[in-house]
């Protein structure tokens, strides 16, 4: 964004009325313009790659590809675009999942119009922004200390079985070994892996392993896997 140019935003929400409301909100503002809309995470990713906005105002819970997955994909594909989450949910899992995915800000729906506008401007300028209730959750989490606060589940967008498969992939297990370990068919394993790659927006097994290892998966199984499953 160059000096003097308006902040270009894409609005992502599965409710058309919410998208229309945000568009109406910024219509009268000379420094913000809506350059695109999307009703789900996959459409959001395509729209952002097409328009290259400064800010994406992102809902989290949508059908199909959710906002967390979309945020992660957008941050990877268009790093200059910043994501401001605007959602009904302020539970710890949603907040920390969005932060881990790369969101710059997090507001709860019901925020005043001036608060939303101020957040868009701040995020566009590179500042992290959190609504009061969300900021309190973050402060409480760190004040409690990592030893007392439960660690957020890695990759909340995955199902429990998909996370189990990813854990085994990170440990170096082959598809056949995973099928034996979980007592499922090789085709089922392949289907789970395809879903994992899509949800994590990774291109191949190596990239999935890197992401999983960074999240702490695979470490407990690695030694046993190397002994029990050499292939």
From TrEMBL:
<dbReference type="GO" id="GO:0000160">
    <property type="term" value="P:phosphorelay signal transduction system"/>
</dbReference>
<feature type="domain" description="HTH luxR-type">
    <location>
        <begin position="151"/>
        <end position="216"/>
    </location>
</feature>
<dbReference type="InterPro" id="IPR039420">
    <property type="entry name" value="WalR-like"/>
</dbReference>
<dbReference type="Pfam" id="PF00196">
    <property type="entry name" value="GerE"/>
</dbReference>
<dbReference type="GO" id="GO:0006355">
    <property type="term" value="P:regulation of DNA-templated transcription"/>
</dbReference>
<keyword id="KW-0597">Phosphoprotein</keyword>
<dbReference type="InterPro" id="IPR058245">
    <property type="entry name" value="NreC/VraR/RcsB-like_REC"/>
</dbReference>
<keyword id="KW-0238">DNA-binding</keyword>
<dbReference type="GO" id="GO:0003677">
    <property type="term" value="F:DNA binding"/>
</dbReference>
<dbReference type="Pfam" id="PF00072">
    <property type="entry name" value="Response_reg"/>
</dbReference>
<dbReference type="InterPro" id="IPR011006">
    <property type="entry name" value="CheY-like_superfamily"/>
</dbReference>
<protein>
    <submittedName>
        <fullName>Two component transcriptional regulator, LuxR family</fullName>
    </submittedName>
</protein>
<dbReference type="InterPro" id="IPR000792">
    <property type="entry name" value="Tscrpt_reg_LuxR_C"/>
</dbReference>
<feature type="domain" description="Response regulatory">
    <location>
        <begin position="8"/>
        <end position="124"/>
    </location>
</feature>
<feature type="modified residue" description="4-aspartylphosphate">
    <location>
        <position position="59"/>
    </location>
</feature>
<dbReference type="InterPro" id="IPR016032">
    <property type="entry name" value="Sig_transdc_resp-reg_C-effctor"/>
</dbReference>
<keyword id="KW-0804">Transcription</keyword>
<keyword id="KW-0805">Transcription regulation</keyword>
<dbReference type="InterPro" id="IPR001789">
    <property type="entry name" value="Sig_transdc_resp-reg_receiver"/>
</dbReference>
């Amino acid at each position: 964004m160059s000096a003097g140019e308006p902040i270009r935003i894409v609005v992502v929400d599965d409710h058309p009325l919410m998208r229309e409301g945000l568009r109406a909100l910024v219509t009268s503002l000379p420094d913000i313009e809506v350059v695109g809309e999307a009703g789900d995470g996959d459409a959001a990713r395509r729209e952002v790659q097409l328009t290259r906005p400064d800010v994406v105002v992102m809902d989290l819970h949508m059908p199909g590809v959710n906002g967390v997955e979309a945020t992660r994909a957008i941050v990877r594909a268009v790093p200059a675009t910043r994501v401001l989450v605007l959602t009904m949910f302020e539970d710890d899992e949603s907040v920390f999942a969005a932060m881990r995915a790369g969101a710059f800000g997090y507001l709860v729906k019901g925020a005043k119009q001036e608060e939303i506008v101020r957040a868009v401007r701040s995020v566009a300028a590179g500042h992290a922004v959190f609504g009061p209730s969300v900021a309190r959750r973050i402060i409480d989490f760190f004040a409690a200390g990592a030893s007392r606060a439960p660690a957020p589940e890695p990759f909340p967008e995955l199902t429990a079985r998909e996370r189990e498969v990813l854990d085994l992939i990170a440990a170096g297990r082959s598809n056949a070994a995973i099928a034996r370990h979980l007592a499922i068919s090789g085709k089922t394993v392949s289907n789970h892996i395809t879903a994992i790659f899509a949800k994590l927006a990774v291109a191949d097994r190596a990239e999935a392993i890197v992401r999983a290892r960074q999240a702490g998966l695979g470490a407990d199984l690695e030694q046993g896997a190397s002994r029990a499953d050499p292939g």
